[in-house]
C-alpha cells in the first residue's frame, strides 16, 4: 500500500512513560493516563489498515501486541535519540514500498482519522506536512520521501522543535504545509486544560 501511518509509542511501564506528567500526578496515575491516551488515539484510527506501531524499548513487543488491530504491524524504533529513530522508521517504511508516510505519537488525544486523511491528501500535492502543537513541538509529521536532514540537530523536548524542523525542511528544499493545531498532554496543566475543553463540569 502506498500510504503508511507510523505510531510512535512506549511500552506501558510505570516510571517510564509520561515522566513530566508523573511529576504532577504520580507515576502510577501517569501510567494509567498513558494507557488511556494510547487507547483513545488508536481507537480513533481503527478503520485505517496500513498502520505500524513503532515501539520503544526494543524488547517491548509483547506489551505492545495487544494494541494491534487487523492489518496492523509492529516494529522496534531502534537506538538513538528521537531524530535517529524517526529516520530509521521512515527509511524502513519507504524501503518497504510506501510512497507517503505519516508519523504521529499518542500524546494528542484529539487526533482523529480525518487528520490522518488530511495529512495523506496534503502529501499528494506537496513534499511534507506537519501538525503544530502549542508547546512548540508537533503532533504529526509526514513526508513523501526519506529526508534525514529534517530530523537532524533538532532540539528535541524543547519549545523550538517545530521551528527548527520547518527551517530544516526549507533548507532541504521541501515544501511543507501545516495541519490544524492540537495540544499534547505532557503536564498536569495540559491534562486539566483538555478536561476543560472536553468536559467543563467540575470534578472532585
Overview of this structure, please?
Helices cover 37% and strands 18% of the residues. It has 204 residues and is an alpha/beta fold. The protein has a single domain (3-198), classed as Alpha-Beta Complex (Spore Coat Polysaccharide Biosynthesis Protein SpsA, Chain A), CATH 3.90.550. Strands 3-2-1-4-6-5-7 form a seven-stranded mixed beta sheet, with helices on both faces. α1 (19-25) packs across α2. The relative contact order is 0.16. The mean pLDDT is 94.
What is the count of DSSP helices, taking H or I runs of 4+ residues?
A: 7
Q: Which CATH C-level class is it?
A: Alpha Beta
Number of strand segments? 7
CATH topology: Spore Coat Polysaccharide Biosynthesis Protein SpsA, Chain A
Task: Estimate what percentage of residues fall within beta strands.
Answer: 15-25%
The quaternary state of the protein chains shown equals single chain
**Major sheet size, sense and barrel closure:** 7 strands, mixed
Question: What is the CATH superfamily?
Answer: Spore Coat Polysaccharide Biosynthesis Protein SpsA, Chain A
The helix/strand series, from N terminus to C terminus, equals EHHEHEHEHEEHEH
Amino acid at each position: 500500500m502506498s500510504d503508511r501511518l507510523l505510531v510512535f509509542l512506549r511500552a506501558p511501564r510505570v516510571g517510564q512513560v509520561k515522566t513530566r506528567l508523573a511529576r504532577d500526578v504520580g507515576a502510577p496515575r501517569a501510567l494509567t493516563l498513558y494507557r488511556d491516551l494510547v487507547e483513545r488515539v488508536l481507537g480513533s484510527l481503527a478503520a485505517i489498515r496500513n498502520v505500524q506501531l513503532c515501539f520503544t524499548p526494543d524488547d517491548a513487543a509483547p506489551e505492545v501486541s495487544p494494541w494491534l488491530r487487523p492489518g496492523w504491524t509492529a516494529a522496534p524504533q531502534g537506538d538513538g535519540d528521537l531524530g535517529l529513530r524517526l529516520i530509521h522508521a521512515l527509511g524502513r517504511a519507504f524501503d518497504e514500498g510506501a510512497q507517503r508516510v505519516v508519523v504521529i505519537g499518542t500524546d494528542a488525544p484529539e487526533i482523529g482519522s480525518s487528520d490522518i486523511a488530511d495529512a495523506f491528501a496534503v502529501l499528494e500535492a506537496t513534499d511534507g506536512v506537519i501538525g503544530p502543537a502549542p508547546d512548540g513541538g508537533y503532533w504529526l509529521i509526514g513526508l513523501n520521501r526519506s529526508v534525514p536532514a529534517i530530523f537532524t540537530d533538532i532540539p528535541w523536548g524543547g519549545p523550538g522543535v517545530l521551528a527548527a524542523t520547518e527551517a530544516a525542511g526549507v533548507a532541504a528544499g521541501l515544501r511543507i504545509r501545516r495541519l490544524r493545531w492540537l495540544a499534547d498532554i505532557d503536564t498536569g496543566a495540559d491534562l486539566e486544560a483538555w478536561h476543560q475543553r472536553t468536559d467543563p463540569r467540575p470534578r472532585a
